[in-house]
């Protein structure tokens, strides 16, 4: 195995379950917003699970939240479902 292949394997082994959920959340949020460059995620892993804080521009925060919070509720549902599948509890918050 070459040096590049070995480092790729190490990265896969070190990936946390919350990273997979964060990738899903980032993919969904970037599809909703106009300014993808302003989107950033802060993942905090704790004993009880992971907290994913989504930061985006103020104009796009309304799109991520949706009318009466329906969009963020759907994102949370998908994140929790994947979190259960990979073995971690997940909460998603929009920081704006």
UniProtKB/TrEMBL annotation:
Keyword field contains Cytoplasm: yes
Keyword terms of this UniProt record: Cytoplasm, RNA-binding
PROSITE patterns per record: KH_TYPE_1
Source domain of life: Bacteria
Cellular location(s): Cytoplasm
Pfam families: KH_KhpA-B
Chief localization: cytoplasm
CDD domains the record matches: KH-II_YlqC-like (cd22533)
Function: A probable RNA-binding protein.
UniProt family annotation: Belongs to the KhpA RNA-binding protein family.
Protein name: RNA-binding protein KhpA
Gene designation per UniProt: khpA
């Amino acid at each position: 195995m070459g040096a590049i292949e070995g480092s790729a394997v190490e990265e896969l082994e070190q990936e946390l379950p919350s990273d997979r959920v964060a990738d899903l959340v980032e993919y969904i949020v970037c599809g909703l917003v106009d300014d993808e460059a302003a989107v950033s995620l802060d993942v905090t892993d704790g004993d009880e699970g992971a907290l994913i804080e989504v930061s985006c521009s103020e104009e796009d925060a309304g799109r991520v939240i949706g009318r009466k919070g329906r969009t963020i509720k759907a994102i949370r549902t998908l994140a929790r479902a994947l979190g259960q599948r990979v073995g971690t509890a997940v909460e998603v918050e929009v920081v704006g």
